[in-house]
Design a protein that fits this description.
The complex is a heterodimer. By secondary structure, chain A is mainly beta. Chain A has two helices and 21 strands. Chain A has a four-stranded antiparallel beta sheet. In chain A, strand 5 and strand 6 form a beta hairpin. Helices cover about 40% and strands about 20% of the residues of chain B. In chain B, the strands form three sheets. In chain B, strands 3, 5, 6, 7, 8, 10 and 11 form a seven-stranded antiparallel beta sheet that branches. A two-stranded antiparallel sheet of chain B has the order 1-2. In chain B, strands 4-9 form a two-stranded antiparallel sheet. In chain B, helix 1 packs antiparallel against helix 2, helix 1 crosses helix 4 and helix 5 packs antiparallel against helix 6. The chains are: A mainly beta, B alpha+beta.
């Protein structure tokens, strides 16, 4: 794997070579709507209605949808915004994929750390520093795992909430629900303190037994009003 | 469920009977089966194979807790205020009055409570808010005392294991809006000694979505009421 600086140098070198190959016609590799991935020599570029957007200097290009393309150089990927004709990340990622109804991009670093990029706001919802991130990215609070412990991130504000000793977290539309190392489930406040009153109200609202799921881990826990797991 | 609790649930399954009523001691319990040493001998091998730090002393302690499950609970103290709507049916609230006597009440329905020590039902109304230093009156205006302390009595581990062993998927059901039917069946058993109704009692508890602690509290209240009635007659 190469550093971003090395990759930038390499792209400049490839551009210089490509400039000398102006007489070689571009070959269309694949079409994605009005966009086409083209090839000259051994590298790929991108055109929009036959107008060149990206010079053919990349190892690979894939158009994810009408907003985003992923460009690859030396095994590292970066995000390219089609409408703005610019790269919005460095070449730092081994995997880039759309997530949660295409509202977010899930980025994986070569060291397997995960991050989430808000496509609409073009900003980090969660920096690429986590071992695991919830499937349910549209929740008010999204759980993230670092080592054995779970924490939460609010994707709307970008705030991170460190929870002390949570060994499981659940996907819920609102609130932060997790299980501590004593195997007791509760709802947590943003300051990391268990909010027994909110938890009690949530359990009563759900008829006395609250069903909590972690869809990524395929875990379903049914808990009573005291946070005991019953199943 | 964690490995330790799964193993303890297995102990309950193998060492205990389902709910039964002992007319002599006038108590509902999940009574112990005979030949416990033989059962422990087999179970200790299982514990060893599963690398569980569970030894004879732990077994004896756990079995003793299961045997007196109706008196076991985890007290959650220092509650200053609790409204009726914040209490779930089947939850047990312990009120210590200014005369230092403590009574525990199971919530049976909206605003309705059953005293575990006397088997007497009280209607406090759905708007009741239990607060410290509050004069507690029932719906008829009868003064019960001034509340000094409030605590909740939560199920202990032995109850969770009994639930796992005998209560099936009770947690898939919502807690019933009224639990008085359990008290009525228990009263029939205590009065007439028809012990076959214990199975019906268990089925009813599962349907109403409640576990062993509230069930034992309700049915043993019926025995208290029977004792008090007998004393008066």
């Amino acid at each position: 794997m190469k550093s971003t600086k090395c990759i930038a140098d390499q792209l400049i070198a490839r551009q210089a070579i490509d400039d000398g190959l102006f007489y070689v016609a571009l070959q269309t590799v694949c079409q994605a709507g009005r966009y086409a991935v083209v090839k000259r020599n051994k590298y790929k570029g991108l055109t929009y209605e036959e107008r060149l957007l990206l010079s053919p200097i990349y190892d690979d290009i894939s158009v994810l949808d009408n907003r985003i393309a992923v460009v690859l150089v030396e095994g590292l990927k970066a995000v390219y915004l089609l409408a703005e004709h610019r790269l919005i990340t460095d070449f730092d990622y081994s995997e880039i994929a759309l997530a949660d109804n295409d509202a977010y991009l899930l980025l994986t670093t070569p060291s397997n750390k995960l991050g989430v990029l808000d496509v609409k706001r073009q900003s980090w919802a969660a920096l690429p520093a986590y071992d695991e991130i919830s499937n349910n990215l549209s929740s008010e609070y999204v759980w993230v795992r670092n080592g054995p412990f779970y924490h939460f991130v609010n994707f709307h504000t970008g705030n991170y909430y460190g929870m002390p000793g949570l060994i499981m977290a659940y996907d819920t539309l609102s609130g932060m629900f997790g299980m501590n190392d004593s195997h007791k489930v509760s709802c947590y406040r943003e300051n990391g303190i268990a909010d027994t009153e909110s938890f009690r109200n949530a359990v009563i609202q759900h008829g006395g037994h609250l069903v909590l799921q972690n869809t990524r881990r395929r875990i379903e826990h049914i808990v009573d009003i005291y946070g005991n797991i019953l199943n | 469920m964690e490995a330790d609790r799964l193993f303890k649930t297995r102990i309950v399954k193998e060492c205990c009977r389902s709910l039964c009523y002992d007319a002599e001691s006038r108590q509902f319990s999940f009574s112990l089966r005979p030949c416990l040493p033989d059962k422990w001998q087999r179970l200790s091998i299982v514990a060893k194979n599963q690398h569980l730090p569970f030894f004879t002393l732990d077994f004896n302690d756990f079995i003793a807790r299961v045997d007196r499950a109706s008196k076991e609970f985890i007290r959650i103290p220092y509650i200053y205020s609790l409204t009726d709507s914040q209490i779930l049916n089947g939850e047990i609230i312990e009120l210590t009055f200014d005369n230092q006597l403590a009574f525990s009440y199971v919530k049976m329905g909206c605003g309705q409570y059953l005293c575990c020590q006397t088997g007497v039902g009280f209607t406090f109304g759905s708007l009741i808010e239990f607060k410290t230093n509050m004069r507690l009156l029932n719906a008829e205006g009868y003064f019960l005392g001034t509340i000094e302390r409030i605590a909740l009595l939560a199920p202990a581990e032995c109850h969770l294991c009994i639930d796992g062993a005998f209560f099936g998927n009770f947690f898939r059901k919502s807690v019933g809006s009224s639990l008085w039917s359990l008290f009525e069946i228990a009263t029939t058993i205590v009065d007439g000694g028809n012990r076959s109704l214990c199975t019906e009692l268990m089925q009813k508890a599962i349907t109403l979505g409640i576990g062993s602690l509230p069930l034992l509290s309700i049915v043993n209240s019926a025995t208290r009421q029977h004792e008090i009635n007998q004393m008066h007659s």
